[in-house]
Specification:
alpha+beta; Aminopeptidase; 4 helices
Length: about 150
């Protein structure tokens, strides 16, 4: 499969919503509908630093989503891009769709002058966790960075 990647449009809401719900089930969270509505509207507000991209399969069906947020950093003079949410349908996993969505966010970050792209995910780094568990509350997420 060769995914078609593009920014999500307001008309994509009905296709996006089931993927957004599946993502929440995966992380065992329930985001209130009014927050989901607000988030969706922010994706389409040019004054908001939030973006939503989608991956469509060969039939034009939305099979993956990614959300990105731009913010300032005390560590860099440029914008920083946080890839907050990434979800690909089970049937599409292992086909490169997730990597393609990450690359699309990296392209978006470069185009917007970001100096870093990062994201977090569950990890099992036992050596580092021993230290982190002593000095901080564990969130279950590890930060990743992609050179831009």
């Amino acid at each position: 499969m060769t995914a078609i990647l593009r920014p999500l449009q307001p008309s994509d809401r009905a296709a996006w919503h089931p993927l957004w719900e599946a993502y929440q089930r995966f992380y065992e969270v329930a985001i209130p509908p009014e927050t989901t509505d607000l988030t969706w509207n922010r994706f389409h507000d040019p004054d908001e630093p939030m973006h939503a991209l989608g991956a469509l399969d060969d039939d034009g069906r939305l099979v993956g989503i990614v959300h990105a947020i731009f913010h300032r950093s005390c560590w860099l003079p440029q914008w920083t891009c946080y890839l907050q949410d990434l979800y690909v349908e089970n049937s599409q996993r292992g086909l490169g769709t997730g990597a393609a969505l990450i690359d699309a966010v990296a392209d978006l970050a470069r185009a917007n002058g970001a100096g870093r792209l990062y994201w977090m995910t569950h990890e099992t780094n036992a050596t580092a966790r021993r230290l982190y568990d002593k000095i901080a509350e564990r969130s279950g997420f590890i930060q990743y960075r992609k050179a831009l």
